[in-house]
């Protein structure tokens, strides 16, 4: 491995130490429906995002709320002694990718069959904290 590649790998490794990530895989909801919920909370402060998800009527919001709680728990594991309110955590990125599709057959008229695709998705949520020093400068 060359020096530049090794340095870049070390930089990425150090950057990952400050990111707090939670991943949900094979959630049995269509990606399109999940993206509607993900767009609601992208860039929001964590407490406000939890409130929005809690009072949303969409079924996918329950799963995203649980995922957000998991990301907060990951943050608390690395930052013991720091209060959540003082940290200014926000949802940095939330990505919804399509997962596997279960293909099923449904009877159709005249002896035919139509294919039903039961979609699933993968959600990746990343938290970050706003630096107070950077805002004052």
Describe this structure in words.
This protein has 137 residues and is of the alpha+beta class. It has one domain: Alpha-Beta Complex (Ribosomal Protein L22, Chain A), CATH 3.90.470.10. The chain has six helices and three strands. The chain has helices at residues 3-17, 31-41, 46-54, 60-78, 84-87, 132-136, and strands at 20-27, 89-107, 113-129. The chain has a three-stranded antiparallel sheet. A hairpin with a 5-residue loop joins β2 (89-107) and β3 (113-129). It is flat, with a radius of gyration of 20 Å. The two termini are 38 Å apart. The model is unreliable at 133-137 (pLDDT under 50).
Secondary-structure topology with pairs:
Blueprint: H1 3-17, E1 20-27, H2 31-41, H3 46-54, H4 60-78, H5 84-87, E2 89-107, E3 113-129, H6 132-136
Helix pairs in contact: 3-4
Form type: flat
| CATH architecture group name | Alpha-Beta Complex
Rg, Cα atoms, Å: 20 Å
Q: How confident overall, as mean pLDDT?
A: 91
Secondary structure: number of strands: 3
Assembly category: single chain
Largest sheet: 3 strands, antiparallel
Count of structural domains: 1
The percentage of residues in β strands lies in 25-35%
**How far apart are the first and last residues' alpha carbons, in Å?**
38 Å
What is the CATH domain class? Alpha Beta
Count of separate DSSP helical elements:
6
Class by helix and strand content?
A: alpha+beta
Order of helices and strands: HEHHHHEEH
* CATH fold assignment: Ribosomal Protein L22, Chain A
> What's the CATH superfamily, by name?
Ribosomal protein L22/L17
Give the proportion of residues in helices: 40-55%
Poorly predicted runs are 133-137
In order across it, which strands form the biggest sheet? 1-3-2
């Amino acid at each position: 491995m060359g020096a530049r590649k090794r340095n870049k790998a070390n930089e990425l490794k150090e950057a990952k130490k400050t990111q707090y990530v939670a991943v949900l895989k094979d959630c049995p909801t269509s990606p399109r429906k999940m993206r509607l919920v993900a767009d609601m909370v992208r860039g929001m402060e964590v407490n406000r995002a939890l409130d929005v998800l809690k009072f949303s009527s969409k079924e996918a919001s329950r799963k995203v709320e649980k995922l957000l709680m998991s990301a907060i728990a990951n943050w608390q594991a690395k930052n013991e002694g720091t209060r959540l309110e003082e940290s200014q955590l926000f949802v940095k990125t939330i990505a919804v990718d399509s997962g596997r599709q279960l293909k099923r057959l449904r009877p159709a008229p005249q002896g035919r069959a139509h294919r039903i695709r039961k979609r699933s998705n993968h959600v990746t949520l990343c938290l970050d904290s706003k630096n107070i020093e950077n805002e004052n400068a």
